Protein backbone atom coordinates (compact mmCIF):
# COMPACT_ATOMS: atom_id res chain seq x y z
CA UNK A 1 0.00 0.00 0.00
CA UNK A 2 1.27 3.45 -0.91
CA UNK A 3 0.90 5.16 2.46
CA UNK A 4 1.46 8.70 1.12
CA UNK A 5 -1.36 8.36 -1.41
CA UNK A 6 -3.61 6.58 1.06
CA UNK A 7 -3.11 9.29 3.68
CA UNK A 8 -4.31 11.92 1.23
CA UNK A 9 -7.57 9.95 0.84
CA UNK A 10 -8.32 10.32 4.55
CA UNK A 11 -10.57 12.93 6.09
CA UNK A 12 -10.16 15.28 9.01
CA UNK A 13 -12.25 14.64 12.09
CA UNK A 14 -15.18 16.91 11.23
CA UNK A 15 -15.18 16.01 7.53
CA UNK A 16 -15.26 12.31 8.43
CA UNK A 17 -18.28 12.82 10.67
CA UNK A 18 -20.01 15.04 8.11
CA UNK A 19 -19.59 12.39 5.41
CA UNK A 20 -20.23 9.21 7.37
CA UNK A 21 -22.20 10.15 10.47
CA UNK A 22 -25.92 10.55 10.82
CA UNK A 23 -27.20 13.48 12.85
CA UNK A 24 -27.63 11.16 15.84
CA UNK A 25 -24.12 9.72 15.46
CA UNK A 26 -22.55 13.17 15.16
CA UNK A 27 -24.39 14.18 18.34
CA UNK A 28 -22.96 11.17 20.22
CA UNK A 29 -19.43 12.03 19.08
CA UNK A 30 -19.93 15.70 20.02
CA UNK A 31 -21.31 14.82 23.45
CA UNK A 32 -18.39 12.51 24.18
CA UNK A 33 -15.91 15.08 22.87
CA UNK A 34 -17.16 17.48 25.58
CA UNK A 35 -16.40 14.92 28.31
CA UNK A 36 -12.72 14.57 27.36
CA UNK A 37 -10.46 16.80 29.42
CA UNK A 38 -6.71 16.55 29.05
CA UNK A 39 -4.71 17.14 32.20
CA UNK A 40 -2.00 19.86 32.27
CA UNK A 41 0.80 17.28 32.18
CA UNK A 42 -0.81 15.58 29.18
CA UNK A 43 -1.11 18.90 27.36
CA UNK A 44 2.50 19.71 28.16
CA UNK A 45 3.61 16.36 26.79
CA UNK A 46 1.61 16.77 23.58
CA UNK A 47 2.97 20.28 23.09
CA UNK A 48 6.51 18.90 23.41
CA UNK A 49 6.11 16.77 20.28
CA UNK A 50 8.50 18.02 17.57
CA UNK A 51 8.19 15.60 14.67
CA UNK A 52 5.29 15.38 12.27
CA UNK A 53 3.44 12.16 12.82
CA UNK A 54 0.81 10.88 10.41
CA UNK A 55 -1.97 8.92 12.07
CA UNK A 56 -4.43 6.89 10.02
CA UNK A 57 -7.55 6.16 12.08
CA UNK A 58 -9.72 3.34 10.79
CA UNK A 59 -13.16 4.00 12.22
CA UNK A 60 -16.90 3.83 11.82
CA UNK A 61 -19.20 6.69 12.78
CA UNK A 62 -21.70 4.03 13.91
CA UNK A 63 -19.23 2.33 16.27
CA UNK A 64 -19.63 2.82 20.02
CA UNK A 65 -15.93 2.18 20.64
CA UNK A 66 -15.13 4.89 18.09
CA UNK A 67 -17.56 7.28 19.81
CA UNK A 68 -15.67 6.68 23.06
CA UNK A 69 -12.15 6.95 21.65
CA UNK A 70 -11.82 8.98 18.44
CA UNK A 71 -12.78 12.30 20.05
CA UNK A 72 -9.72 11.81 22.27
CA UNK A 73 -7.55 11.94 19.14
CA UNK A 74 -9.15 15.24 18.14
CA UNK A 75 -8.06 16.69 21.49
CA UNK A 76 -4.54 15.37 20.92
CA UNK A 77 -4.37 16.93 17.46
CA UNK A 78 -5.58 20.28 18.80
CA UNK A 79 -2.83 20.24 21.44
CA UNK A 80 -0.06 19.00 19.12
CA UNK A 81 -0.17 20.50 15.62
CA UNK A 82 2.56 18.08 14.47
CA UNK A 83 -0.02 15.30 14.68
CA UNK A 84 -1.68 14.91 11.30
CA UNK A 85 -4.69 12.66 11.84
CA UNK A 86 -6.87 11.34 9.04
CA UNK A 87 -9.96 9.19 9.44
CA UNK A 88 -10.95 6.32 7.15
CA UNK A 89 -14.29 4.58 7.16
CA UNK A 90 -13.66 0.87 7.64
CA UNK A 91 -16.21 -0.21 5.05
CA UNK A 92 -15.07 2.28 2.38
CA UNK A 93 -11.39 1.35 2.83
CA UNK A 94 -11.24 -2.46 2.90
CA UNK A 95 -7.55 -2.41 1.91
CA UNK A 96 -6.70 -0.46 5.06
CA UNK A 97 -9.06 -2.61 7.14
CA UNK A 98 -7.20 -5.72 5.93
CA UNK A 99 -3.81 -4.18 6.72
CA UNK A 100 -4.97 -3.20 10.21
CA UNK A 101 -6.92 -6.30 11.18
CA UNK A 102 -6.80 -7.16 14.86
CA UNK A 103 -6.94 -10.83 15.80
CA UNK A 104 -8.21 -11.63 12.30
CA UNK A 105 -11.02 -9.08 12.36
CA UNK A 106 -11.73 -5.68 10.82
CA UNK A 107 -11.94 -3.90 14.16
CA UNK A 108 -12.32 -0.19 14.86
CA UNK A 109 -10.92 2.13 15.94
CA UNK A 110 -7.37 1.31 14.96
CA UNK A 111 -4.63 3.93 14.67
CA UNK A 112 -1.73 3.40 12.28
CA UNK A 113 1.29 5.58 13.05
CA UNK A 114 3.46 6.63 10.09
CA UNK A 115 6.53 8.86 9.86
CA UNK A 116 6.47 12.13 7.93
CA UNK A 117 8.23 10.33 5.05
CA UNK A 118 5.69 7.51 5.02
CA UNK A 119 7.35 4.67 6.90
CA UNK A 120 5.06 2.59 9.10
CA UNK A 121 5.87 2.84 12.79
CA UNK A 122 3.15 0.58 14.17
CA UNK A 123 -0.53 0.43 14.96
CA UNK A 124 -2.72 0.32 18.03
CA UNK A 125 -6.35 -0.55 18.66
CA UNK A 126 -9.21 -1.51 18.80
CA UNK A 127 -9.48 -0.95 22.52
CA UNK A 128 -6.87 0.14 25.01
CA UNK A 129 -5.36 -1.95 27.77
CA UNK A 130 -7.54 -0.28 30.41
CA UNK A 131 -10.68 -1.05 28.43
CA UNK A 132 -9.64 -4.67 27.90
CA UNK A 133 -8.94 -5.03 31.62
CA UNK A 134 -12.49 -3.85 32.29
CA UNK A 135 -13.89 -6.28 29.72
CA UNK A 136 -11.96 -9.22 31.15
CA UNK A 137 -13.16 -8.38 34.65
CA UNK A 138 -16.75 -8.52 33.33
CA UNK A 139 -16.49 -11.65 31.16
CA UNK A 140 -18.98 -13.57 33.27
CA UNK A 141 -21.71 -11.14 32.21
CA UNK A 142 -21.50 -12.32 28.60
CA UNK A 143 -20.32 -10.72 25.36
CA UNK A 144 -20.97 -7.06 24.77
CA UNK A 145 -20.13 -4.30 22.36
CA UNK A 146 -20.07 -0.64 23.27
CA UNK A 147 -23.01 1.26 21.83
CA UNK A 148 -21.72 4.73 22.60
CA UNK A 149 -25.02 5.46 24.37
CA UNK A 150 -23.45 5.49 27.83
CA UNK A 151 -20.14 7.25 28.32
CA UNK A 152 -17.54 5.43 30.39
CA UNK A 153 -17.06 6.53 33.97
CA UNK A 154 -14.54 9.31 34.64
CA UNK A 155 -11.79 7.01 35.92
CA UNK A 156 -12.23 4.65 32.95
CA UNK A 157 -12.20 7.59 30.52
CA UNK A 158 -9.07 9.03 32.13
CA UNK A 159 -7.37 5.64 31.87
CA UNK A 160 -8.29 5.26 28.19
CA UNK A 161 -7.05 8.78 27.43
CA UNK A 162 -3.76 7.94 29.12
CA UNK A 163 -3.49 4.61 27.28
CA UNK A 164 -3.93 6.34 23.93
CA UNK A 165 -1.50 9.08 24.95
CA UNK A 166 1.09 6.37 25.64
CA UNK A 167 0.57 4.97 22.12
CA UNK A 168 0.94 8.41 20.53
CA UNK A 169 3.95 9.22 22.71
CA UNK A 170 5.62 5.93 21.81
CA UNK A 171 5.27 6.68 18.11
CA UNK A 172 6.48 10.26 18.62
CA UNK A 173 9.64 9.16 20.43
CA UNK A 174 10.37 6.65 17.68
CA UNK A 175 10.34 9.39 15.03
CA UNK A 176 12.06 11.90 17.33
CA UNK A 177 15.01 9.59 17.99
CA UNK A 178 15.23 8.05 14.51
CA UNK A 179 18.80 8.48 13.24
CA UNK A 180 17.46 8.84 9.69
CA UNK A 181 15.06 11.63 10.65
CA UNK A 182 17.58 13.32 12.94
CA UNK A 183 19.98 13.47 10.01
CA UNK A 184 17.21 14.81 7.75
CA UNK A 185 16.35 17.54 10.27
CA UNK A 186 19.97 18.14 11.28
CA UNK A 187 19.21 17.70 14.97
Distance between the termini: 30 Å
Number of separate strands:
4
- CATH architecture, by name, is 3-Layer(aba) Sandwich
Q: Could you tell me the radius of gyration in angstroms? A: 16 Å
Share in helix: 40-55%
Low confidence ranges:
none
- Give the count of structural domains: 1
**Major beta-sheet overview:** 4 strands, mixed
CATH homology superfamily: Glutaredoxin
CATH class reads: Alpha Beta
Oligomer: single chain
- Overall pLDDT metric: 94
- Strand-residue proportion: 5-15%
CATH fold group:
Glutaredoxin
Q: What coarse outline follows from CA principal-axis ratios? A: globular
Order of helices and strands: HHHHEHHEHEEHHH
**Widest sheet: strand order?**
2-1-3-4
Please work out how many helical segments DSSP would assign: 10
> Structural class of the secondary elements?
alpha+beta
Descriptive labels:
about 190 residues; alpha+beta; 4 strands; about 50% helix
Amino acid sequence: MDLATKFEAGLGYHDFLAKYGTEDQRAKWANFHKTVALQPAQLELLRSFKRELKVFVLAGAWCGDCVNQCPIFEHFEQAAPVLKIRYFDRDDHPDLAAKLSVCGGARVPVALFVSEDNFQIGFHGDKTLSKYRELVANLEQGPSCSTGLVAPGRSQLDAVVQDWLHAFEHAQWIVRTSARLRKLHND
